């Protein structure tokens, strides 16, 4: 009998899942808002330095909420819950329009879903593309600054 443990079209993952074993930076923050957060959400700095909130049209995106296994709830991460945020690395996100590898990662103006139109996320692009409502891989990179030292 042939080996049949795996199927040809396994799911890639899910929003907020780490995409691969590349180096990454993951920081911990508390959810600020009552509406909570979901894995794969783009987030901005909250009111306090240890808080974050979902990007809703203003602010600088600092990362993407990472998924970690826990008992499901609605929202997945409620207010005051400590969440992991990928600030550098590769992570799966659900896209609201077709994207291809190399496209700038953007947040669409009407829904704040990931896409290639709308507000561009600094230092982020699609490492792997996807069709609308599919999973793409966003590569986030912390900007590096080089300063030449005098002798």
Task: List its salient traits.
mainly beta, 151 residues, 9 strands
Shape call: globular
Give the termini separation: 71 Å
- What portion of residues is helical? under 10%
For the sheet with most strands, the description reads:
5 strands, mixed, barrel
Q: Please state the structural category.
A: mainly beta
Uncertain parts: none
Description:
The protein is an all-beta fold and 151 residues long. Helix content is 0%, strand content 36%. It has strands spanning 25-31, 42-45, 51-54, 61-65, 82-94, 104-107, 114-115, 119-128, 135-140. Strands 1-3-2-4-5 form a five-stranded mixed barrel. The termini are far apart.
Spell out the blueprint of helices and strands.
Layout: E1 25-31, E2 42-45, E3 51-54, E4 61-65, E5 82-94, E6 104-107, E7 114-115, E8 119-128, E9 135-140
Parallel strand pairs: 1-3
Antiparallel strand pairs: 1-5, 2-3, 2-4, 4-5, 5-9, 6-7, 6-8, 8-9
């Amino acid at each position: 009998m042939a080996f049949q443990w795996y199927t040809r079209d396994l799911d890639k993952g899910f929003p907020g899942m780490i995409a691969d074993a590349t180096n990454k930076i993951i920081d911990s923050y508390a959810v600020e808002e009552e509406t909570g957060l979901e894995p794969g959400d783009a987030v901005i700095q909250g009111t306090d330095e240890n808080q974050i909130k979902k990007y809703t049209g203003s602010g600088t995106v600092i990362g993407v909420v990472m998924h970690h296994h826990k008992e499901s709830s609605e929202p997945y991460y409620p207010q005051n819950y400590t969440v992991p945020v990928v600030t550098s690395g590769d992570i799966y996100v659900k896209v609201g329009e077709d994207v291809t590898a190399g496209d700038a990662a953007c947040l669409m103006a009407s829904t704040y879903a990931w896409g290639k139109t709308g507000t561009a996320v600094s230092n982020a692009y699609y490492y792997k593309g996807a069709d609308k409502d599919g999973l793409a891989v966003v590569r986030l990179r912390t900007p590096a600054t080089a300063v030449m030292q005098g002798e």
